[in-house]
Design brief:
about 325 residues, alpha+beta, Serine Threonine Protein Phosphatase 5, Tetratricopeptide repeat, five-stranded antiparallel beta sheet, four-stranded antiparallel beta sheet, 11 helices, about 40% helix
């Protein structure tokens, strides 16, 4: 932080007598010293006011110290108007606004985290301090990134990143760097927590932030991808596309039948998108058991959307057991 002096204002007075030439015409110059950080033109705040009185005729300086206290204050009021001094606090105003903005963003983030922890969704990301969960975690690398992979009415299943971090900022760095879309970034082991336990984790800052992707992005970076190939040579891809084309005009029974036929061909060839689309079609036509059957087949291959679909619609069938489904997912490594 450095100082700079500027000529703040100039006025003319005629009630003082020059000590050198007896002239009564004087110019009074107000000078202001202010602090600045890096840019001289942005004052942080004023630190010193100075008054110089100069004779207009002989340029002699008048002895300001000889002025009475009341006379000095009167000149100071004329030179340093309150409204004119406000811009000299530009720097501190900018800092206060930045602090306010930062605090407001933190408030917003905390409010959203509170909302998300109470109403979790698949693919929510959690910033976690693992020391309260696992006492074997090294104290210098205690932070881990979690991701919600399945839900039940009472539990939330998370997978944790394979990497432990020393700093909280590293969690955001991995998201911004799109590292989380790597298929091997998260461990396959699932950690199942009661919902109220997760809320407690948030309250004691074991979980200190919850993020929810929007349009598959966080911080402007893609963080969600399906584990599906988009290669058109994949078996079932073509049939699924044809089924989707029939579904786009599914305002007739014939179109629905054709869509079902092609989705079924795609599903039988093992294409998970075709299996899920078939499940969706069956759900729309009230074939609940078949919808759950095909979505489960896709889900057990690790297809996140199918897992979410199965859990969401499980309650529609008396034979569906979410707990058993989660156990099967864990058994196959998801």
């Amino acid at each position: 932080m450095e100082n700079k002096e500027i000529e703040f204002k100039k006025i003319t007075i005629d009630h003082l007598t020059c000590q050198s030439c007896n002239s009564k015409q004087h110019r009074v110059i107000g000078k202001l010293t202010y602090l600045y950080f890096f840019i001289e033109s942005i004052p942080f705040f004023p630190v010193k006011k100075t008054i110089n009185i100069i004779c207009n005729d002989c340029d002699s300086a008048f002895d300001v110290d000889s002025l009475s206290s009341s006379a000095y204050k009167a000149l100071s009021k004329k030179l340093f108007k309150v409204y004119a001094l406000v811009p000299m606090y530009t720097g501190i105003i900018m800092v206060l606004l930045a602090l306010f903005y930062w605090q407001y963003n933190n408030y917003q983030a905390n409010s959203l985290s509170q909302e998300y922890i109470e109403s979790p969704k698949i693919n929510d990301f959690y910033y976690i301090n693992q020391t309260a969960i696992n006492d074997k975690i090294p104290p210098n690398k205690k932070y881990v990134l979690g991701k919600v992979v399945s839900l039940t009415p009472n539990t939330v299943s998370l997978v944790f990143s394979r990497f432990l971090f020393e700093n909280k900022s590293s969690l955001a760095s991995d998201i911004r760097g799109a590292k989380v879309i790597d298929a091997n970034y998260f461990n396959k082991k699932r950690h199942v927590f009661p919902r109220d336990k997760l809320i407690n984790f948030y309250q004691n800052e074991t979980v200190f932030s919850v993020l929810r992707p929007k349009n598959s992005k966080l911080f402007g970076t893609i963080v969600l991808t399906t584990n599906l190939s988009v290669n058109k040579e994949v078996k079932g891809y073509r049939e699924n596309r044809i089924g989707l084309s029939f579904m786009s005009g599914a305002d007739s029974k014939a179109n629905l039948e054709d869509a079902e036929r092609f989705f079924l061909e795609s599903a039988n060839k093992g294409y998970v998108q075709g299996q899920l689309n078939l499940a969706r079609l069956y759900l729309d036509t009230n074939k609940i058991s078949q919808a759950l059957e095909w979505s489960k087949i896709a889900a057990l291959k690790g297809y996140d959307l199918a897992i979410e679909f199965y859990i969401q619609h499980c309650s529609a069938s008396e034979d569906c057991d979410v707990a058993a489904f989660n156990a099967e997912l864990i058994e196959v490594g998801f």
